[in-house]
Amino acid sequence: MDGAAGESAGQTPMEALRDRLSGAREARLRDAVLRIAGDVHCIVADLQASPAELRAVLDFLTDVGHATDQRRQEWVLLADVLGLSSAVEEIAAPDVPGGTPQTLAGPFYRADAPEMPLGADLSRDGRGVPLRVAGQVLALDGGPVAGALVEVWHANAEGFYENQEPDRQPEFNLRGRFRADAAGRFHFRTIRPRGYALPEDGPVGRLMNRLGLRLERPAHLHFRLTAPGFRPLVTHVFDRDDPAIGRDALFGVKPGLLASFCPEAGGFAVETRFVLCPEDQA
């Protein structure tokens, strides 16, 4: 008799799997596998999935793996467009009432961007419509967070980040680090970013197109803010007038992250503020 001898002949495959995993050494891994497998078994039963449909799902997952390499992470893209990345981020760093919401950092963040004086210009190629940015970093009690480190990065006027186009954009274009002053204020110059589309030429993009979903991201600035005693904040500032503001492919748009990019002489200006949460609320 083999190892399945103890299983009842009337068991479903899911029930048998649950019995087989009852002695697994890693309880959390076992519970995760059983939960995922159980949900998939329910989906198969509810939809009355055919062998051909299962084969199509397996072929899709195989294609995702083949499309992933050192330059492209199709698995991350899949998690992103299904909302899984944002859901896990919200569990890891839940929003705190009164605090600025957390968002995904995305794949284009660089920790080695240079520190620059307040008022400096992030545009190293001078291409694009000027944008003046001013902001303030506050604590939950409304007090300023003096000396907070403010990191910023964003796409250019064509929707591309500097590290996407190393041969077309100067090193560290449209990214830098600033120190807030004693009042928690900071300001810098840059250019108005453009929204962009996520890659649609791979299996994930083709799936989204079949579903009628567009992989658009509205125009935005990325920020990462850190200060002693406070929880690190990674967030966005979105252009509220961008036509894609209601269909962000990464589910990052939240009411508290919308800002007006207001016309002014020679370009645009945006003002924002960030509210940091104490470390003990991380």
Automatic annotation (TrEMBL):
Its cofactor is Fe(3+). GO terms for biological process: catechol-containing compound metabolic process. It comes from the Bacteria. SUPFAM superfamilies: Aromatic compound dioxygenase (SSF49482). One of its GO terms (molecular function) is catechol 1,2-dioxygenase activity. Keywords: Dioxygenase, Iron, Metal-binding, Oxidoreductase. Residues 133-161 form the Intradiol ring-cleavage dioxygenases domain. Belongs to the intradiol ring-cleavage dioxygenase family. This is 6-chlorohydroxyquinol-1,2-dioxygenase. It comes from Neotabrizicola shimadae.
